[in-house]
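Hi support team,

I've been running sequence recovery on a batch of backbones for a student project. Most finish fine, but this one hangs at about 90% for roughly twenty minutes before it completes. I'm not sure whether the input is malformed or the queue is just slow. I've pasted the C-alpha coordinates below so you can try to reproduce it. Let me know if you need the job ID as well.

Thanks,
M.K.
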Protein backbone atom coordinates (compact mmCIF):
# COMPACT_ATOMS: atom_id res chain seq x y z
CA UNK A 1 0.00 0.00 0.00
CA UNK A 2 2.92 2.40 0.52
CA UNK A 3 3.58 2.19 -3.22
CA UNK A 4 -0.01 3.26 -3.81
CA UNK A 5 0.60 6.37 -1.73
CA UNK A 6 3.59 7.19 -3.91
CA UNK A 7 1.48 6.75 -7.06
CA UNK A 8 -1.23 9.19 -6.01
CA UNK A 9 0.88 11.81 -4.19
CA UNK A 10 1.66 13.70 -7.37
CA UNK A 11 0.93 17.16 -8.68
CA UNK A 12 -0.31 15.78 -11.97
CA UNK A 13 -3.66 13.96 -12.01
CA UNK A 14 -3.50 10.16 -11.93
CA UNK A 15 -6.23 8.15 -13.66
CA UNK A 16 -6.43 4.69 -12.12
CA UNK A 17 -8.15 1.82 -13.90
CA UNK A 18 -9.02 -1.12 -11.67
CA UNK A 19 -9.53 -4.06 -14.00
CA UNK A 20 -9.49 -7.85 -14.33
CA UNK A 21 -8.13 -9.74 -17.34
CA UNK A 22 -11.24 -11.95 -17.53
CA UNK A 23 -13.72 -9.04 -17.63
CA UNK A 24 -14.97 -8.13 -21.12
CA UNK A 25 -15.80 -4.51 -20.22
CA UNK A 26 -12.26 -4.09 -18.86
CA UNK A 27 -10.79 -5.50 -22.08
CA UNK A 28 -12.81 -2.92 -24.00
CA UNK A 29 -11.26 -0.14 -21.92
CA UNK A 30 -7.65 -1.01 -22.88
CA UNK A 31 -7.64 0.91 -26.20
CA UNK A 32 -9.65 3.76 -24.63
CA UNK A 33 -7.04 4.19 -21.89
CA UNK A 34 -4.21 4.08 -24.45
CA UNK A 35 -5.93 6.94 -26.30
CA UNK A 36 -6.40 8.89 -23.05
CA UNK A 37 -2.73 8.44 -22.11
CA UNK A 38 -1.61 9.50 -25.60
CA UNK A 39 -3.85 12.58 -25.59
CA UNK A 40 -2.76 13.75 -22.13
CA UNK A 41 0.96 13.06 -22.54
CA UNK A 42 2.92 14.21 -19.50
CA UNK A 43 0.03 16.29 -18.12
CA UNK A 44 -1.36 13.21 -16.36
CA UNK A 45 -0.63 9.57 -15.65
CA UNK A 46 -2.80 6.58 -16.54
CA UNK A 47 -2.20 3.53 -14.37
CA UNK A 48 -3.88 0.15 -14.69
CA UNK A 49 -4.27 -1.94 -11.54
CA UNK A 50 -5.16 -5.63 -11.80
CA UNK A 51 -7.61 -6.38 -8.96
CA UNK A 52 -6.56 -10.05 -8.95
CA UNK A 53 -2.96 -9.08 -8.16
CA UNK A 54 -3.89 -6.21 -5.81
CA UNK A 55 -6.78 -7.63 -3.79
CA UNK A 56 -5.91 -5.76 -0.58
CA UNK A 57 -5.85 -2.41 -2.36
CA UNK A 58 -9.08 -3.15 -4.25
CA UNK A 59 -10.79 -4.11 -0.98
CA UNK A 60 -9.44 -1.05 0.85
CA UNK A 61 -10.83 1.20 -1.89
CA UNK A 62 -14.10 -0.78 -1.99
CA UNK A 63 -13.79 -1.62 -5.68
CA UNK A 64 -16.90 -3.68 -6.46
CA UNK A 65 -17.76 -3.18 -10.14
CA UNK A 66 -15.31 -3.46 -13.00
CA UNK A 67 -13.83 -1.49 -14.48
CA UNK A 68 -13.61 1.13 -11.70
CA UNK A 69 -11.92 4.36 -12.66
CA UNK A 70 -10.57 6.94 -10.21
CA UNK A 71 -8.78 10.25 -10.55
CA UNK A 72 -6.37 11.29 -7.80
CA UNK A 73 -4.36 14.48 -7.43
CA UNK A 74 -2.07 15.38 -4.52
CA UNK A 75 -3.13 12.17 -2.77
CA UNK A 76 -6.82 13.07 -2.83
CA UNK A 77 -9.53 11.26 -4.78
CA UNK A 78 -11.19 13.77 -7.11
CA UNK A 79 -13.51 11.50 -9.13
CA UNK A 80 -14.65 7.89 -9.19
CA UNK A 81 -16.96 5.82 -11.36
CA UNK A 82 -17.56 2.19 -12.19
CA UNK A 83 -18.30 1.06 -15.72
CA UNK A 84 -17.01 1.85 -19.16
CA UNK A 85 -16.27 5.42 -20.21
CA UNK A 86 -15.30 6.85 -23.57
CA UNK A 87 -11.93 8.48 -24.19
CA UNK A 88 -13.25 12.02 -24.70
CA UNK A 89 -15.15 11.94 -21.40
CA UNK A 90 -12.08 10.72 -19.51
CA UNK A 91 -9.78 13.24 -21.18
CA UNK A 92 -12.18 16.03 -20.23
CA UNK A 93 -12.44 14.83 -16.64
CA UNK A 94 -8.68 14.55 -16.17
CA UNK A 95 -8.08 17.96 -17.76
CA UNK A 96 -10.27 19.54 -15.06
CA UNK A 97 -7.52 18.65 -12.57
CA UNK A 98 -4.43 19.51 -14.64
Amino acid sequence: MSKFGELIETRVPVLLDFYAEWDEACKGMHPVLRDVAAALGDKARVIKIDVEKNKELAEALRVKGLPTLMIYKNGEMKWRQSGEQDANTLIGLVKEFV
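--
Follow-up from support: It reproduced on our side and the slowdown came from queue contention, not your input. The longest strand covers residues 76-82. No action needed from you.
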